Amino acid sequence: MKPAVGWIGTGVMGSSMAGHLVEAGFQVGVFTRSQGKAEALLSAGATWYDSPMSLAQHHDIVISIVGYPTDVEEIYLGELGLFSAVEDQRKCRIAIDMTTSQPALARALYEKGKDSGISFLDAPVSGGDVGAKNGTLSIMVGGDEDVFREVAPVFEVLGSQIQFQGSAGSGQHTKMVNQTIIASTMIGMCEGLVYARKAGLDPLTVLQSVSGGAAGSWSLSNLAPRVLKGDFDPGFFVEHFVKDMDIALDECEQMGIDLPGLTLARKLYEKVVSSGGEKLGTQALYSAVDELSHESVKRDNGDRG
Amino acid sequence: MKPAVGWIGTGVMGSSMAGHLVEAGFQVGVFTRSQGKAEALLSAGATWYDSPMSLAQHHDIVISIVGYPTDVEEIYLGELGLFSAVEDQRKCRIAIDMTTSQPALARALYEKGKDSGISFLDAPVSGGDVGAKNGTLSIMVGGDEDVFREVAPVFEVLGSQIQFQGSAGSGQHTKMVNQTIIASTMIGMCEGLVYARKAGLDPLTVLQSVSGGAAGSWSLSNLAPRVLKGDFDPGFFVEHFVKDMDIALDECEQMGIDLPGLTLARKLYEKVVSSGGEKLGTQALYSAVDELSHESVKRDNGDRG
């Protein structure tokens, strides 16, 4: 028999993911901050529960995917939190947080879970709304490997690239590697486009020359064409990427490592945020890089005056 | 009848490229600084000439691919240079420089060529030794479009992605876009690997999670595995990439634009060069990024002491 799955968080990612579980025949219970956002899931066959605690009382596995580490803390450690269910009234043995969050918080929840008899996995994802919709997410998992094996059938409904990465926090660390790589790759993509335009080239023709070779990347193929169309709608929100970079930079500080590209990206995205772009897509970085160049021209003109 | 093609430069790129022309049935003449390096071509059927000028006297098209802009100047403007052939003793009507070189030099050679009745194209390539060997280079062309059309059959023997990018210098500018994008993408790749190692992850398992998604790039798929094997052999030499970044940064200064990612990459590669890595492959950037982190740890320890 399939395990009963409690689901917390019905944003753009969570809705699609929980929907796949309902379709795959899992018994799904759902809780989220505003019940309205769960309606599609409820009419598809999921059942409403009014707290993480009540989800834990009635489901074998509970999965969360929410916004920020503070939301994760509330869900697990709050008064009506997952870990607050009294043991003899609790069905939940395994809890999985798929939010992109702090490795240290993941380790803390793993330990707290152990104390209350719940195995905790950190399992953030990449692949965005499209990956969530198509069930092709990459899922990066930290925690105990035997627990990972037990819930693998659930992950397989949600993603196509599923990797156990090591002890508690390793899933989050892997996601931080992912975001660190993206950060500088985005700078390169934006700087290439700024250069192309200033040099008087046709950027679309330039992309034909450069996208398929050593300069090629997911960002260049998927986001550069949007920039050139002036389309800054979010695939992935600036504000979420900034949160992720802040977590990664915090971890770097704790590990005593210095990543200048990541630091630079964070600084450039600050410009995007301070000009009101936090709800735009990450490709809005282009405007900040382009703006720098205008400032540079102004500075030069000032020097001459 | 196929045009006779004179070829200048038999490095790792030029040898393969000229070889394809011989195989395709072009009559190929060759000149290079050290005749020994042309031997494979000569035994394949190419003919030796003792200067760019003599190549120009006997071939319809002359193509150069050498190391540095100073080499390009010598080939075109030197005493025995291509443009020094007296007009009535000259067969050459079209000259093509495929070296990665300065856009300004390309424009100057285009103008000089016009004065002496030779049409000049700048046509740098990307795709490296493998692309040259397999005839799958990306060729980015600047100059007059009718001349580009005339020599397209020659380009088609050498590459698989052939784009006319605009007026003289546009090929070089496009290559600078390519290198600018690569510069920051390389930083992202190296920082991701440094983070993964310091966080105690298994970097190969991390690559399985991150290579196929939004963090994906040619660098990540092709160079990160080499870094993890400790293989820093050159696909593309550090010293050549540094030359390219210097050209791009010069152009940025002239255009009045500020590209902080490119500037950072140039600074990091300086560390590679100053520790003797100029003949390594560009993936040697990893060592410089890793070294930064050791310095950061030392600094922190110093602060505590």
Report on the structure:
- Two copies of one chain form a homodimer.
- Chain A is an alpha/beta fold.
- Chain A folds into two domains: 5-167, 3-Layer(aba) Sandwich (Rossmann fold); 174-304, Orthogonal Bundle (N-(1-d-carboxylethyl)-l-norvaline Dehydrogenase, domain 2).
- Chain A is 55% helix and 12% strand.
- The first copy, chain A, has 14 helices and nine strands.
- Chain A has a six-stranded parallel β-sheet, sandwiched between helices. A three-stranded mixed β-sheet of chain A has the order 7-8-9.
- In chain A, strand 1, helix 1 and strand 2 form a beta-alpha-beta unit.
- The longest helix of chain A has 29 residues, at 170-198.
- Chain A is elongated, with a radius of gyration of 21 Å.
- Chains A and B meet through strand 9, helix 8, helix 9, helix 10 and helix 12 of A and strand 9, helix 8, helix 9, helix 10 and helix 12 of B.
Radius of gyration of chain A: 21 Å
* Annotated CATH topology of the largest domain in chain A: Rossmann fold
Mean pLDDT of chain A: 95
The named CATH superfamily of the largest domain in chain A: NAD(P)-binding Rossmann-like Domain
Per the principal axes of the C-alpha atoms, what is the gross shape of chain A? elongated
Largest sheet of chain A: 6 strands, parallel
Q: How many distinct folded domains of chain A?
A: 2
The arrangement of helices and strands of chain A along the chain is EHEHEHEHEHEEHEHEHHHHHHH
Helical content of chain A stands at 55-70%
CATH class of the largest domain in chain A: Alpha Beta
Largest interface: A-B, 75 and 75 residues
Distance between the termini of chain A: 78 Å
% residues in beta strands of chain A = 5-15%
Give me the count of strands of chain A: 9
Multimeric organization: homodimer
How many H/I helices of chain A?
Answer: 14
Q: Which residues of chain A sit in consecutive blocks of at least 5 with pLDDT less than 50?
A: none
